[in-house]
Write a structure and sequence with these properties.
The chain is α/β, with parallel strands linked by helices. It folds into two domains: about 45 residues; about 190 residues, 3-Layer(aba) Sandwich (Rossmann fold), CATH 3.40.50. Helices cover about 45% and strands about 15% of the residues. The chain has seven helices and six strands. It has a six-stranded mixed beta sheet with strand order 2-3-1-4-5-6, with helices on both faces. Helix 4 links the parallel strand 4 and strand 5. Helix 2 packs across helix 7 and helix 3 packs parallel to helix 4. The protein is elongated and about 100 Å long. The relative contact order is 0.14. It comes from Harpegnathos saltator (Jerdon's jumping ant). Belongs to the small GTPase superfamily. Arf family. Pfam families: Arf (PF00025). This is ADP-ribosylation factor-like protein 5.
């Protein structure tokens, strides 16, 4: 038995002292952890800033399949991403960030283009400080190919835009009446244009989609041709 029992004031003082010591230890741990977190964040930002960023503008007439193409590229680039069908039409512009070991690629998808005149307008608006222009074509809509060819010539003949490389995506190759990539290339007369401008064409399809399992509503699937389009886009943007 303690010969010198603590008074109430001494007990209170001891309790307050222990509490203060505990709070101080907790504070020091929190501050150390917070500083570590801040350093980690700055490290991430520094890493981000040290990685080059490329700007890619993606255009095409309504119904060409731009949004689904971007969705499937994002699935291939980001395992956490999924999308629903049918895709919502893009209003204005939508920016999607993709990446590889070399760069970040900011994809500016421009929606709501109804006519080829609008395409030329958007080309002019978005082509400054752009690393790559991607134009998505519905290979099944052959009536517009001659007009698209004329628009390409206007674009290439503009001296302010002539250095921007172009990737043409001949989409919807799964459609039975779609022109093959070499047929689209011939219809657009790309052979003559390629002497004046860096321009390439690649075939692509985003459908048919696989059946979802029961209870699923989102897709995490992309066609193999979409992966090839993304790789071509990456290589042209950094060249």
């Amino acid at each position: 038995m303690n010969k010198y029992p603590l008074t109430e004031s001494q007990k209170t003082f001891l309790w307050v002292s222990c509490t203060c010591v505990g709070m101080y230890v907790a504070y020091r741990y929190w501050k150390k952890r917070k500083l570590k977190t801040i350093n980690e964040r700055f490290g991430e930002i520094s890493k981000l800033l040290s990685k080059p960023q490329k700007r890619v503008v993606l255009l095409g007439l309504k119904g060409a399949g731009k949004t689904l193409l971007v969705n499937q590229m994002t699935v291939s680039n980001n395992n956490d991403f999924s999308y629903t069908m049918p895709p919502q039409p893009t209003k204005g512009s939508l920016i999607t960030r993709l990446k590889n070991d070399l760069c970040y690629y900011n994809i500016w998808e421009v929606g709501g283009i109804d006519t080829l005149d609008d395409v030329i307008t958007y080309w002019t608006m978005f082509s400054y400080d752009v690393d790559l222009m991607v134009f998505v074509i519905d290979s099944n809509d052959t009536d517009k190919l001659s007009v698209i060819a004329s628009s390409l010539k206007q674009f290439i003949n503009n001296p302010q835009l002539s250095k921007t490389p172009i990737l043409i995506v001949a989409n919807k190759q799964d459609c039975p009446n779609a022109l093959k990539p070499e047929q689209v290339e011939q219809a657009l007369d790309l052979l003559s244009l390629s002497h004046k401008h860096k321009i390439e064409l690649i075939g692509c399809q985003t459908e048919p989609l696989p059946c979802l399992s029961e209870g699923e509503t989102n897709y995490k699937w992309c066609h193999s041709s979409v992966v090839l389009v993304m790789k071509k886009m990456f290589s042209m943007a950094i060249s």
